[in-house]
Amino acid sequence: MYTLEQILQIVEFHIEQINYNRQPQNLYSPVHYILSLGGKRIRPALMLMACNLYSDGVEEAIKPAIGMEIFHNFTLLHDDLMDKADKRRNQLTVHKKWNANRAILSGDAMLILAYQFIGNTKTPLLKSILDIFTKTAMEICEGQQYDMDFEQRQDVTEDEYIEMIRLKTAVLIACCLQSGALIGGASNKDAMKLFQTGIYTGLAFQLQDDLLDTFGDPHSFGKEIGGDIICNKKTFLHLQMMQRASDAQKAIIHDVQSDINCPPEEKIAVIKSIYETLGVREITNDRILNYYNRAMQELIGLNLPVERLRMFNGTIDMLLGRKS
Fold first, then answer.
1. Rounded distance, CA 204 to CA 295, Å?
2. Residue 7 domain-assigned?
């Protein structure tokens, strides 16, 4: 079985081989730019590793996996535009480097390019993989709309938030695992267990992202720390804070969130202090661990060699920053 390092080398090699020599360059240069910014490449890596669980080779899954990565970066491009984010992976976002129109149109081109790559799936599985991907793409749009809707609501529940991140983040990881396993020759039963593994992994990953947005290192996180707080986003941390805050704390929260003249660093410091007082970081870490354990539980029923599962588990650990 390939190691994670070998899988990532395969992914990076094929991303570098994408041909951008089409015209007009003003359409394709942002595509090249965002794909060249790197990232963990975790979605295509998981897809190839899921394939490799059942097949000695991964060649049949490479182009569909690259398509999944292109699609993921397309969602980031439009997400950054909607969030008015300045940085992505420590570099300017596409709409800041160029403009909003370029970001919209180049993102549209990336969606089409993603379908072109996924369309290279071998014929017997092509319809199944396209069906899984199309369902996933629509669910991601639904998740993004929920995320925007939540900005206008003060009554978002924890269950609603978990469903939103399931749609916005977890389903693509699940899609990659399910699709890779099917291409590798897995049964539908095994592929669905890997799908569910992806759902729990994706939930844990997004909660970790929420946590890092406040408590992470800006150099390794790749984005400005405190962005969620500045934007008053209804993250898991925010919801836990509001469930536990006293009336006095809620008054302080309301004051800093409603004061448009409050300096960003002061707003971050106030909310972060309340997080610490209420134990929100520990609560979030506990939930991340819960989802991680549920992901690992899904893998128990797979009839696969221990060594292959061990390497796959190591990839999940890497994604969540866990020590194997």
1. 9
2. no
User: What one-character-per-residue DSSP string does 76-110 give?
Assistant: HHHHHHHHT--EETTEE-HHHHS-HHHHHHHHHHH
pTM exceeds 0.90 for this model: yes
Specify if 324 maps to a domain.
Answer: no
Q: Rounded distance, CA 238 to CA 158, Å?
A: 10
pLDDT, one tens digit per residue, over 204-232 is 999 999 999 999 877 666 567 898 999 89
Would residue 8 count as lying in a domain? no
Structure tokens at 227: 């962005």
| Domain carrying residue 65 | 15-319
Biggest CA-to-CA distance, the chain: 62
Distance of alpha carbon 310 from alpha carbon 247, whole angstroms: 48
Task: Please give the tally of structural domains in the chain.
Answer: 1
Closest C-alpha among 263, 204, 214, 267 to residue 237:
214
Q: Yes or no: say if 53 and 88 are a contact pair by the CB < 8 Å rule.
A: no
